[in-house]
Amino acid sequence: MTIHAFTSFSYSYLNRARVLAKTLRAQHPDWKIWAVLTDKEPEGFVFDLSDEDFTGVLTADDLFGDSLDAWLFGHDIVEACTAVKGRACVRLLKDPDCEKLFYFDPDIALFNSMDPVVDLLDDFSIVLTPHQVDPEPRNEKGAIQDNEIASLDYGIFNLGFVAMANDEEGRRFAQWWDDRLCDWCHDRLDIGIFVDQKWCNLVPCFFDNVKVLRDPGFNVASWNLSQRDMRYDENGAARINGNLLRFYHFTKLGAVGDTMTQRYAQDNTEIYELWWWYRQQVLSKTAQEVPKGWWYYGIFDNDVKVPKSVRELYRERKDLQNAFADPFKTGTGSFYNWLLAETDLMAEGKGEKGFTPV
User: Partner of 155 for a Cys bridge, out of 137, 198, 237, 267, CB 3.0 to 4.6 A?
Assistant: First the structure.
């Protein structure tokens, strides 16, 4: 029996996914590591699995078949790459060789083994990590708002990581998650949904054998840095509050991530060194042939960007879905031409050509 792991991304995040795969392979060379791709290669770029640290690839086409384009059109890039996670779990758990299954976001890097979670899955069916495992002091109003209140808004658990055993309860969770993400993986805070995360608030209510992992060395990120201190021990191992750093979640690489890190890492120099290392790793894994912001499903077939409002309209209107089975198509009788004639929604993109930034 084998442990399987996967990450879900578009080619714009390939550099990050490569860093994840490299660090995961270094810790667990015997695991099967899957790339779940909701994208197609840009012209001039070839994704050659023999040059990668991944064992195999699952595409959105593999997971959704002929229904993909119409379903996918109703999602932006974040929603889409998140929504396929449940279906990927169901598919991989059907492999008789898969004993335990791990999911990691592509912007994660591992620094020590995941053996503690492997062992937990002998006794538990599902392992989740909360955004925070320690409360903020009462007088830290900014941290309470940034961290605890944000968790109430966006989800108690960070679904950049989840692990499950290939047992009855683990498979039941995967199927439920797939069902919800197929229909409801949207950024809709107005109705209480934030892609996959808020659904998993319900996991301890709906499923047995759930482990909430509170070890501070797992899923370290800006949303919990206020309560986590990183130091190197005498052997050079990174430790968080004395516990081994298992993996760090380098969310929002760029100005936003820098701002939140500086706010809560403060004078913890080791955190800034870790970010410097990660930036160098991402740069070294960047394929110059992939245009910045590339996403094959971000545009109509005439290269015009699909505005988010258009995606929302399409997914809410069954009549439009029935009338236009291939919503990415342009030309006579197309959804695109209907939009131009019947709405002003295409003005949002102002006829912009190119790729959707991510």
Answer: 198
